[in-house]
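Exercise: predict the fold of this chain.
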Amino acid sequence: MTDTLVRTSTDAAITTITLDSPANRNALSSTLVAQLRAAIDAAAADPAVRAVVLTHSGGTFCAGADLGEALTRGLTPEEATAEVGSTISGLIKSILELSKPVIAVIDGHVRAGGFGLVGAADIAIAGPSSTFALTESRLGLAPSIISVVLLPKMTARAVGRYFLTGEKFDAPTAVAAGLLTAAPEDAAGVAAELDAILEGVRKASPQGLAASKKLTTASLLDGFDDAAAARAAESMALFGSDDAREGMTAFLSKSRPSWDASRA
């Protein structure tokens, strides 16, 4: 029996899709991804649905790809990396191509491929428990595939800092960086912000929403497949490197890789 890792509900023309695998930090396993894609497809096909809210249970919105799960299915590291790249780019594209607005609602940690979901969303709001960190550089890697949606949305100064340093930043900083739309101070503020957004969406016609979203995503979708393929190839090369092997080993063993020259 397959576990239910993604839950959906529809009310007042809005489908809420909840990532519900908190024990695995809502990592993008093959099962979670299949259920998420199915939920997105169902929302796309339902004429009564005006918009999608993408949210989560537990303290992490999404920790990114589940490489470990791919490896347990017998895939080689190279095959697992290729599958993960295809999975994340496919998810991002499905959100961009959905003719209905996607609103990400976050109150937890966002890491790695989770940034791809946030970057692909049309609107993103986050509560005070949210944290963000692009730590790939500390592992000998880079935020390759997710950069396809992050670079057009985040400011040049923000990506110049957080892509390189791997520092953790909060929701108000993410708003200033262009990653988020809003960062209310508390849960009541998040609820009020979301309600205002959804009421605005409900007033719009389906045709108007679809045409307006197409304008906002056209530049992202133009050349998307080529850009995603190039970044996936880059990611595979990085994952196969000595630096990445050392970085991942150090991370898992909670030790410092040889290149770590920090004072802390």
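Check your answer against the key: Residues 8 and 39 are 7 Å apart (CA to CA).
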